[in-house]
Amino acid sequence: GKVGCAELVDASYALTDHFVAQVRQRPWLELASDPDMNLICFRGCPAALPPDQWDSWNADLQRYLLNQHHTFLSLPVFRGQRWLKAVLLNPFTTVTQLSDLFLAVDEYVKLSAETLPIVEAP
Questions:
Q1: Does a structural domain hold residue 120?
Q2: Beta carbons within 8 Å of 103's beta carbon, 6+ residues apart
Q3: pLDDT, tens digit, for every residue of 57-98?
Q4: 121 found inside a domain
Q5: What CATH number does the domain containing 84 carry?
Q6: Does the pLDDT value for residue 121 go beyond 90?
Q7: 6: left (phi over 0), alpha (psi -120 to 50) or beta
Q8: Which residues of 90-112 are buried (b: 16+ CB within 10 A; e: fewer)?
Q9: What is this structure's pTM?
Q10: Does 38 reside within a domain?
Q11: What pLDDT does residue 81 have?
Q12: What is the structure's pLDDT at 120?
């Protein structure tokens, strides 16, 4: 009934808050905006790459998460750039699963850093 639906909505907002906190803990990630609901758009902005290569880096991260961790994030274009998008609708999604997702993101960051060219500061 209404109480059950309200609990699902509240749980979705709690997961959204956790997801946003995970993004904010990583200086190489940015949010497209503060989410009003359970849709979160974010992207990686690796300092070792120029901004015109961030779309490719995010597309590679999306493929990595799907192929290595069986996690799908869509990759829409927003403001002319690629952003990863999570929609937290599944009532069986847990905080642990979201934390694991960000461990996988951290893993990808380390792997990609090993293959990025060294950029000298001006």
A1: no
A2: none
A3: 999 999 999 999 999 999 999 999 999 999 999 999 999 999
A4: no
A5: 3.90.1150.170
A6: no
A7: alpha
A8: eeebeeeebeebbebbeebbeeb
A9: 0.88
A10: yes
A11: 97
A12: 46
